[in-house]
Every structure is written in C-alpha cells, then in structure tokens.
Automatic annotation (TrEMBL):
The keyword Metal-binding does not apply. It comes from Hibiscus sabdariffa. Belongs to the glycosyl hydrolase 3 family. Residues 1043-1113 form the Fibronectin type III-like domain. InterPro entries: BXL, Erv_C, Erv_N, Fn3-like, GH, Glyco_hydro_3_C, Glyco_hydro_3_C_sf, Glyco_hydro_3_N. This is Fibronectin type III-like domain-containing protein. Transmembrane segments: none annotated. Residues 1-15 form the signal peptide. The lineage of its organism: Eukaryota, Viridiplantae, Streptophyta, Embryophyta, Tracheophyta. The keyword Transcription regulation does not apply.
Length: 1120
C-alpha cells in the first residue's frame, strides 16, 4: 500500500547487501504556513484565524502577516486590510471616535439609546439596566442584554450581510505538527479581561463554504502544487466543521557516498463534522491538522540481511502514515491527489485520460496538451450569423459595429453597457468581461482573470514607480509587450474572460503621501507620457516606434484615471467626493500631457475617467473633458469607462445628479461607454422610458464598445486563423519574461548614498547580518495590483546565496513596527562582518484607499536602524522598499549608515537584483522619478492642487519643476559604482528666430516678456526650428554600467508660472570602464521650450534658455 519513487527504490535495493539504515525522526522547530483562502459567504468581521501546536496549546509566539479582503457577492474587493491572529476585536464603543479607542482612553461601551449625555458609558449589562431605569424605560426585549454582551457584534454582522472574505498571508509557528483554523468568532474587553470567544455564536448558522486558492508549508511541501489548491467546498449544512488532515514527510536519504535524494511523501484526508454530535456542538469553521515531521535516512557501510532492510523500510513507512490516524493516505494519494494535480495542471496543461490517471500513480510523467479555445462570434459554421454584415471582415469596423448595434433590442443594448456584458445567444455573441488589470503584470484584481485554471501565475514585473527609475522607454515597451503576450496567451487558452486591461495608471505623482503613487511613473509629465506610450504600444502589439498597428490588437490598454486624480483617503477627505480645484495652467502644463500622449501617440484603445470632480464637475460627466478634449482634440476612437461605482457616486455621494437616472444620462452624454456596476442597467432603462436619455446615445456608446472587441479579433470567426492566435501558454512565465523582470529590477534600483565606497560589499564576506521586517516577505516585493508571481526569491534568500553565514532577524513584529526587538537585533549586528537593514513600507502603509499622513518610516523602524548602526562593526547598508518617498534625512546624515539603496517594490526578480547590486554583480544606475521631500512638507494640505509656489502664503509648490524648499533627494538623483561626466559636444543652434511672422501675433506677459502662441506657429515653422544636441558621456569608474542621461531646459527668467527647470529628453547609455560615448537629442522648440500660460495656452517666450545636463549648460536664445 505504499508508493516509492523509482530513484528511491533503486537506492533501497542497492542498500540490501552493502548498507544499514540509520533513521533520525527528531522533530524540527519551525514551520511557515502560507495560505490564500476565500470564504464567499462569511464576512471578514467575524472570521478569525488561529493556530495550535501539537499539544493543543495556543501558539502564543506565532509570527504572522495576514490580509483580509472584504468581497461582495460577485467576488469584487470592497476593502483590504491587515489583520492578526485570534478572533476579531470588536471596535464599537458607539459613542467615541467611530468606535475606536484613542491614546490611553478607557473603554466606553454603548447604553443602547439610554445615554443621558454624549460621554455616558455602559461597560456592563448592569450599566445598561441602570441607564434604562434612570430614563424610566423598561428593558422589554430580553435579547438586549445578550446583545450588550456582544458590544455591537451582531450589528457588524448585519452591516456585512451577504459579503464574503478572502484571507491570505502566512503563519510561522514553532512546531511542525498542530493545527490552524479559520472560524467565526469574536473577542472583546470585559472589565480588565480580554475575552476570546469562539463559542458565543455556535447556535447561529454560518455558511463556511470555502475555496483553497493556495496552501503551502514553507520549504517542506512537495512539488509546486498542493493537491488542496483550488479545492472548493460548498456548504450543505447550516453549520459544522470542515477538517483537513495533512501528512507531509520531508525525507532526506543519504547514501554511503554522501549523495542525497530528497523525497516528500504526502497524504490528505478530508472530513466534515455536522453541527450536532450527541449533546456536544461542533465549532463551525475550517480546520487544518498537519504533521510535517522530518525524517533523515542515512545508509552506512555494513552488510545486513534483506529482512532487516525491509523491517527498517516498513517501520519508516508505517510510522509516516499512521501518525494522526491517517490510514487511507495512499488511497487518497493515488486516486485523488495525483488526479487533482493533473487536472489543475501541476504536471502539464492537458487533462489526462482515465487510464493515465490510474497508471501514473507509479511514474512521474509530464503531459503537454491543448488548451480550451476562447469564445468567439461569427462562426463560419453557423448559417444564422455567418452572412450578417457585422461578421464580414472585409467591411470597415465602424460599419460592422453599427450593423451589430442596429440588430439589438433596447434591453440587449443596455445589458452591454456594463463591465460584465452577458451573451446574446440569438446573434452568437458570447459574454465578455471588460474589467481586467495588468499594471505591472497580468493581475487577478479584476473579475477577468482569476488564475484558477491550469495557469497559476504570471510574470510580476517591478511596481511601475521602480520601472520608471530606469528612464528607459524601450525597456518599458518590452515590459508592455510581455504583459500583452501573457494576457493574450491566457485568453487564447480560455483562462481569461476578456482582453481589455485597465492599465497604465498615468496620473502625476503630485504629493508624496499618495498611496497609489507607487502605481505611476512619477512626477514628471514627460516621463509619465513616454511611459504611457511605450507601455500601450507594447501591450497592444504595436512596434516601439508606433504607427505599425493596423487592424487587430494584441490586447487593449486603458489610460487611467482621467484627470487630476491623486488623492485617495487623506484625513477624512476621500477620492469619491473630492473636488480637485485645478487652474487651466496646471491642467495644460502638468495633469493633461500624459493622457494626451497616451491617446495621440500611444493610440490607446481605452480611457478611464476618475472618481473625483474637477472644478465642480465629476470627471465622468464632464463633456468638456471627455467629448471636446479626448474625443475631439485628441481624436480618440476607443471606449471610455468609469472607475468602479463612479457613476453611482455622482448621485449618491457627490450630489451632482438629482436622480440615479440623471447620473447615467450625464455620463453617456459626456462620452462614457462602460458603466460599473451592473445595477445601473435599471437606471439606464428608466432614463430611456422617462425620455431623459435618447436611445441614440446608447447606440453611440455601443458603437465604440463593439468596435474595440472587433479590433481584438473577437468577431472574426475561429481565432485559430487570426493574428495573435499563435500566442500560447508557454509565453506565460517564460524564461525570457522572467529575465526581463530581473533586468527591470536591476535597472530601477537607485543608489542614494555610498560613503567611502562601502558598496559593493566584498564577496569574501565571512558573516552577514540581515535585519528588517521587509527582508523575508515575498509579498512586499510585488506591490499592489499584482497577480501571483512565477517565482519568489526574497532579499534574505538572495543574500544567503552570497554569504553562507548569514543571520537574520526581522527586528520588528511587522512593517508597521509597533514592537521592535532592538536588543536582539543589536546583538546579531555586533557579531557580523557587515549588516544590511531591509526596511521601508508595504501595502499596509500605502495603497489604494490609504494615503499616508507623514513621511517618516513606520513605528520604531528609525530607532531600530540607528541602534543597529551604532553597534555594528562597520557602517551599515540600508535598503528601503517603498512606493512613495520617505524622509530618511537621519540616515543620509549619519556616517554610521554608509550606504542607502531604494528598491521600490521590485517584483519577482527584486530579491535577486538586490543581492546582485549589494555584492557588485550589477552596477546600479537607477534615478529617482520623484522628489523626496522632508517631513516638513506634510504641512501642505494634500487637497491643494496648485503646482506653482505662492511666496505670500509660504506655499512651496510641488514637484521638482516648481517646488521651492528643502529636499532629502531631488528628482533624477541616483549614484553609481562608477562616476560619469557629461559635456555638450555639439549643438546645432544657438539662436532661434521667430520674428519672421507678422508682429501682430506678438504679445507681452505681465513681466514684459514678449511671446507668441504655439498654436499660431505653423507646423512647418516648428519643424524647421528643430535642432540636434550631442552630449558626450564618460564612465570614469572601474565597472561597466548602464546610465540614464537626463537633459533639462531652464528659462533665464524665473517665476511668473515658469518652471525652475523642465526635463525635455532622456536616454540610457551603456559604457565599459573608462569608455566614452555620445548620445543625441532632438529638440523641438515648440514642444520643449514652451510653457503653459494662465489660460492653459502654450507660449514661446523670448530670452535665453539654458540646456542643462549634469553640471554643464548651453545657452539658446529665442528671438521673437
């Protein structure tokens, strides 16, 4: 009844006459449990996580990092938050601070309406009775007293009725046998006692249906895929306990020559205990009982009998699979686990035959088969649709789209306006999902991609802010191209429900506190615009230069969030109601240029309008922005979608529309096409019936929507014969893409400080201390809007590959660092030759819906860094993982902190890239795409959208172009292990004459500077004034390096709306040690030497402009 792999069996047989067995079954000490489980009908507020060791005692020293996501009935994420182990705490003293205690306040519970004053508290049921007596009220409802014990818990359940919860993260426990469980429960404070209560609601009915998206046990678990992955249980009884008994035996066999064979044998059994068992009631929940006791088998030289050998083997196998009473392990392993593995693609892409499912129990073979074909319209074998005009590929897409829309009923038309568009069977039109995400790799954030089929992961590139630090547009294009290919491959395999991806995020990173700044390419409009163009061309399948894409799209990219959106949730002001007051000058000069580039040059097929209002008008209802600017001036031909629920907010939260129907009318008339969510269908039809909305407006929206689907090839018949149909699943997580992810991480990492050339560390380092909460958290590397990565190597793991004697301590309980083990970290640092501290932020500190309120490191991180630096033998290296800037002035000025690296959120290759940079296998060349401000900047309200300074009110302005204040590090700052110098070798123009046209077009500014409007200069004049700039670059170092060169322009006259300086070009150059090279920039004066005036018009001003690269500058005189 047992399974032996062939390689192990060979070793056993060899041992019969030559060796004896020495068996070590001593128990290990630690286990890391990684989990990702979805409960579609159990709210996060009542879902607890806990762990017990083998004795049944609670793990009081468990390390953990747990995230809970509230999800609605459709699986959409409502909210994401960090959580802990133990039952959820009730944060509902109803009088104060929205139910949360502040500082050292005592608990103030509710009197359930009987409070005599606002600060009255009822902290016991007797207090409630007394409060009612004083009011002269009777406690008529006996349930009230029971409810007072629960302190609002039932209300919380009611508030989240119908919701589910996705919970993921890790538990690190100090045994390798025990259980961990997910169960409905609560905890509360009663007097001075903290009560942990899992039993309080056992008479309630809990639906604990669940899906195990991912479950692993650190380095112990065998293979790539757990047989429980994707297992789904549907609730059949009102309550009860699901039990999974997991037995994994990590076994190492060592032969007489010292060669080892590692084996991981496993078994799983599943049980369900009903709610009633005699008089005892089972706790509701999902319980995982595990035993991962390691076994070491060593063969030593000695002749033994075959019988003695078999006795030892049987003892091992018997002991392995009888622990915890799991007697049916091999049956499960053979008949279910292997079958499940094959079904979900652990050993291939196809589903094996029944014969293969049984025979392959005894041999490990790899299967590669076909994939499921995606749905398509206009099947040539369907006589009812193949002759319809919208199926005729020879006709123009606009004509085909109009024909299709003309055949739809009103209800069918309205049904297609939402992101989850249903099928129209009578016309052979399949369902389509518009909402998928691919910010820096195909993601499972939207409903379009779930990674629940044979494809379990996608290449996770660095978060965009780090990718931007390379200042390399061609690399950005290659990343977009790789993402587009993986997206199309998943769709071709039937594992994505759409090919429209809502990325890139090209909002300006205006304020360093913005939680979503990490998603953007930074603060400079030129950089953001070039990133948008490069990414969009790549995703959609165009060439790097653009203009070659005619007809089909590889995938559809969407420029978001239009416009002036860069505040999520700051001090009570949220994005849903925020009214961004923006001048015409700032719109034209800062906020709009990236979107114009994305649409005009990138030819994006989608645009998403933002939640916020701009100057009083909701972005999604602003016809001046959407129709006049985007569709009119920029000639946009694609679809415009709202952000999630943005249309509902126009009525419900912003009060801009008087009725929900009016909100629908406003956005459709303004030019929007996709409404989210689905409940807007009813309002749309109501608006038509009330004659508020002409049906022609719906038709116009649908023309664009179906045109995009046609450009994607979804209405051209069998996709096997179409462009991009040959992109197969081998493109997903391909070696080429994973190398690109590593390359992007390398090129983005920024060296901020390197006193006395501390870095790179010598590879001969004998001992290394790695300290910090971000050193060994793979999820931190990925950032937000990411899918599961192809692989994950943490910085700690990478550094261990360089220094065998590496000692690690997190230093903090978690990234928030409310608790720090400073003494332990100091002790470790004292013993090491070198110390690397890996600190910073993660998604608990900055993310969508969470802006920061300060720029300091969280909690006690700074205290930990300083203490370790004081104690170390040598100056330490500080690595910062973050999306937004951090005020690390203390580290910049501390000589005991010799090196500082910023690595953003570097993606799946980030750990390896950091190791390579720290030990000199890569010469860093990244440069900051944002200004790093000091903490003092947080005095500026985040709601103030002005870019330019106002000295009279001490307003310092924003971004490197206008900001007048202290900086921790400036935009474009970045060191290298080499030193580079620059010089202007040749500039083809010194003077630019614009005085040949009529003097009637010459105007003067308020400070008496003559100028002309760029719009009044002909395209011919602008083209004729272009000139070339040649810059020589030399590498003075001992290492080869890739180095971005930034070209700025500065106006001779400061102030009056003019930027301090403006980036007009950037290129990367690769130079060997001691090598000199030359790069060229083309300068277009109408674009690069102009600026926006107070009316939002671009103007060319007379006077001297200076081209600046490094410390060298070259004057250019403009004559009007």
């Amino acid at each position: 009844m047992f399974l032996l792999f062939f390689s192990e069996l060979r070793l056993y047989l060899h041992a019969v006459t030559e060796t004896k067995l020495v068996v070590d079954t001593s128990r290990g000490e630690t286990l890391r449990i990684n989990f990702d489980i979805t409960f579609p009908a159990l709210a996060c507020s009542i879902l607890s996580v806990d762990a017990m060791d083998i004795s049944g005692e609670q793990h009081l020293d468990v390390r953990h990092d747990i995230i809970k996501k509230r999800i609605d009935a459709h699986g959409n994420v409502i909210e994401s938050r960090q959580d802990g182990i133990g039952a959820p705490k009730i944060e509902k003293p109803l009088q104060r601070h929205g139910g949360r205690l502040e500082h050292n306040e005592t608990y103030c519970g509710s009197c359930y309406g009987a409070e005599a004053a606002d600060d009255d508290c009822c902290n016991s049921c007797e207090d409630v009775r007394e409060a009612y007596r004083k009011k002269g009220w009777a406690v008529s409802n006996p349930d009230l007293i029971d409810q007072c014990k629960r302190e609002g818990f039932l209300q919380k359940i009611k508030d989240e009725e119908g919701e589910g919860c996705n919970i993921y993260g890790f538990l690190e426990v100090n045994k390798v046998a025990g259980n961990f469980h997910f169960a409905p429960g609560k905890s509360f404070q009663q007097s001075n006692v903290h009560v942990h209560d899992l039993l309080a609601f056992q008479k309630e009915s809990f639906n604990i249906s669940h899906k195990i998206n991912r479950l692993t046990f650190g380095d112990y678990f065998p293979g790539v895929v757990n047989p429980l992955d994707s297992v789904q249980w549907t609730q059949e009884q009102p309550s009860g306990m699901y039990q999974y008994f997991i037995k994994v035996v990590p076994t190492v066999y060592t032969d007489v020559s010292g060669h080892t064979i590692q084996s991981n044998q496993f078994s799983v059994t599943e049980h369900f205990k009903g709610a009633e068992l005699g008089r005892l009631q089972s706790l509701p929940g999902v319980f995982f009982f595990y035993d991962l006791s390691p076994i070491k088998v060593t063969f030593t030289e000695q002749h033994v009998s075959f019988l003695h050998f078999l006795t030892n083997v049987c003892a091992i196998v018997g002991g392995v699979f009888t622990v915890s009473g799991i007697l049916d392990s091999f049956i499960y392993h053979g008949q279910k686990a292997i079958k499940k593995k094959m079904e979900i693609g652990a050993w291939g892409y196809g589903e094996p035959s029944k014969r293969e499912q049984t025979t392959e129990i005894f041999s490990l073979l790899f299967f590669h088969g076909g994939s499921t074909q995606p749905p398509f319209s206009c099947d040539s074998s369907n006589p009812e649709t193949k002759t319809l005009p919208f199926c005729q590929t020879g006709l123009p897409i606009t004509q085909r789209a109009r024909d299709l829309v003309s055949r739809l009923t009103l209800d069918e038309k309205i049904s297609q306006l939402v992101n989850s568009a249903p099928a129209i069977p009578r016309l052979g039109i399949p369902a389509y999902e518009w909402w998928s995400e691919a910010l820096h790799g195909v993601s499972n954030v939207g409903p379009g991609v779930k990674f629940d089929g044979t494809i379990k992961a996608a290449t996770s590139f660095p978060q965009v802010i780090l990718t931007a630090a390379s200042f390399d547009p061609y690399q950005w294009y290659r990343i977009g191209l790789a993402i587009g290919r993986e997206a199309r491959a998943m769709y071709n395999a039937g594992e994505a429900n759409g090919v429209t991806f809502w990325a890139p995020n090209i909002n300006i990173f205006r304020d360093p506190r913005w939680g979503r700044g990490q998603e953007t390419p930074g603060e400079d409009p030129l950089v953001v615009g070039k990133y948008a163009v490069s990414y969009v061309r790549g995703v959609q399948g165009d060439t790097f230069q653009g203009g070659k894409l005619h007809g089909h799209l590889q995938a559809s990219a969407c420029c978001k969030h239009f416009t002036a959106y860069d505040l999520d949730n700051w001090k009570g002001m949220n994005r849903f109601v925020f009214d961004a007051r923006v001048t015409m000058q700032d719109l034209a000069d800062t906020y709009q240029p990236p979107f114009e580039s994305c649409v005009r040059d990138g030819r994006a097929s989608g645009v998403m309008c933002a939640y916020n209002r701009v100057n009083g008008v909701p972005s999604c209802a602003d016809s001046n922005l959407l129709l006049k600017t985007v569709r009119g001036e920029w000639d946009f031909k694609g679809y415009i979608t709202s952000d999630c629920d943005a249309v509902v907010l126009i009525h419900d939260d912003q009060g801009y529309a008087k009725a929900p129907e009016d909100a629908v009318v406003d956005v459709l008339k303004a030019g929007m096409k996709v409404l989210i969510p689905c409940n807007l269908r009813n309002y749309t039809k109501s608006a038509v019936l009330q004659k508020k909305l002409p049906e022609s407006q719906i038709d116009r929206a649908l023309h664009n929507l179906f045109a995009v689907r046609m450009r994607l090839g979804l209405f051209d018949g069998n996709p096997e014969q179409l462009p991009f149909s040959n992109i197969r699943t081998d493109q997903v997580c391909s070696p080429e893409h994973q190398i690109l992810a590593l390359e992007a991480a390398r090129n983005g990492i920024v060296l901020l400080k390197n006193d006395a050339k501390l870095l790179p560390l010598p590879k001969s380092t004998m001992s290394l201390a790695v300290i910090g909460p971000n050193a060994d958290l793979p999820q931190t590397l990925i950032g937000n809007y990411a899918g599961p990565p192809c692989k994950s190597v943490t910085p700690l793991q990478a550094l261990k590959s360089y220094v065998k004697n590496t000692v690690y301590h997190p230093g903090c309980d978690m990234v928030s660092c409310s608790t720090a083990a400073i003494g332990k970290a100091v002790d470790i640092a004292k013993q090491a030759d070198y110390v690397v501290l890996i600190m910073g932020l993660n998604q608990t500190q900055e993310r969508e819906a969470l802006d920061r309120v300060d720029l300091f490191l969280p909690g006690r991180q700074q205290e930990l860094i300083v203490s370790v630096a004081k104690s170390a033998k040598r100056p330490v290296v500080l690595v910062l993982l973050s999306g937004g800037p951090i005020d690390v002035s203390f580290a910049k000025d501390d000589p005991r902190i010799g090196g500082i690296l910023w690595a953003g959120y570097p993606g799946e290759g980030g750990g390896i890239a950091l190791g390579e940079v720290i030990f000199g296998d890569h010469n860093p060349g990244g440069r900051l795409p944002v200004t790093w401000y000091p903490q003092d900047f947080t005095k500026v309200p985040m709601t103030d959208m002005r870019m330019q300074p106002e000295p009279s009110s001490d307003y310092p302005g924003r971004t490197y172009r206008f900001y007048k204040g202290d900086q921790v590090f400036e935009f474009g700052y970045g060191l290298s292990y080499s030193k580079y110098s620059y010089t202007f070798t040749r500039v083809s123009q010194k003077n630019l004459y614009l005085n040949h046209s009529s003097p009637l077009h010459t105007r003067e500014t308020s400070d008496s500077i003559r100028y002309k409007l760029v719009s009044e200069l002909s395209a011919e004049v602008c083209d004729q004034r272009k000139f070339m700039v040649h810059v020589g670059v030399k590498n003075h170092g001992d290492l080869a390096g890739k180095h971005p060169v930034l070209l700025f322009v500065r106006h001779g006259n400061h102030g009056n709306g003019r930027p301090k300086k403006q980036l007009i070009g950037f290129q990367s150059v690769i130079l060997s040690a001691g090598e000199m090279g030359e790069i060229q920039f083309e300068v277009n004066p109408c674009e690069h030497l102009s600026r926006a005036d107070e009316y939002g018009l671009m103007v060319m001003e007379e006077g001297t402009h200076f081209l600046v690269v490094g410390h060298d500058k070259h004057p250019i005189t403009v004559v009007i």
